[in-house]
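input
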Amino acid sequence: MHDTGASPAATLTLRYFAWVREKVGLAEERVTLPADVATVADLMSWLGQRGDTYAAAFARPEVIRTAIDHNHVRPDAAIGGAREIAFFPPVTGG
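output
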């Protein structure tokens, strides 16, 4: 490989849990992110534009919890270098 000066596109695994998985219709997938997707919030916005099922799953991103490489993060967290990002609803108990 030679260096072209361009940043390589980030390819990572996305995992979906509970109702997020049900709405997306997948448990996981590998994606290559556009260069302008830099944070969790950017990623959720981009995912929400990928079609009706994604739009339904990410219609209320503020209620979705996210983990990068098994560490819970906030929507403003940078995703550079991530290998896996998981999305799940808030955990409730009683």
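quick obs: The two ends are 54 Å apart (CA to CA).
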